[in-house]
Amino acid sequence: MDLNEKIKNLADIERSANHFSELQSIDLDALYERNNIHLLEKPLSDDISGVFMKHDNECMVIINTNKTKGHQNFTKAHEYYHFKYDKDLTTQICNVAKFDHTNKSELSADLFATYFLMPENGIKSILAEVLQNNDGEIDISVLLHLENIFKVSHMAMVRRLQDLNLISTELARYFFAVRIRSTAQRYGYQPDLYHSSKETRLYSDYKELVEKLYTEEKITEKKYDELLNNITSLGIINTPYEFEEEYIDE
């Protein structure tokens, strides 16, 4: 079994195990919550999509909100792969959707995000219905429909349709050149998917957990300080939690 087939099977298993229909988008925030993944959404530099960090049984994912919402969703699925299947990975700065064949872990995570968010059977089922009323042609209206069902970026869906041999290289080039934000609005879609949110939001009880471990004397003071500050150790993020000054190791 080659890597593509292996990762596709994993994505199918995850969709089934989490009771996600192939005809719907995935509630990634709910998926993270169910798996106790600490999630921080925050603006980062443009060359970073997300950051994955794991310590013992605790996992933190940081998502760059300077990226479009569609890109953020792809990144969340990418990082979820690291959480579930890269058991020895502790820290990774990710620039997703590059499909880098020199880095098996990053390639696998990109493939997983593709198959997980945009299942082949789901896409083909929707197309079979939509194209009956569209003269059998995949045009920009059909593309927008798919993007907004699966909550993925314009680029991601174009690539997926091309990989499935549902559109030609020439048509893919045409779609890549479309000014997608204004086009989406013209077709009546909300622009959120195609814009960056630039928000800072934390979905986590991380600080409370660390303090509980320290209070119960399950970790040393040194480990306590390390855990509170490990999220800033990459040097790319200003303190993401609103810690009191006495907790910060200057």
UniProtKB/TrEMBL annotation:
InterPro entries: IrrE_HExxH, Rad_response_metalloprotease. Residues 33-161 form the IrrE N-terminal-like domain. This is IrrE N-terminal-like domain-containing protein.
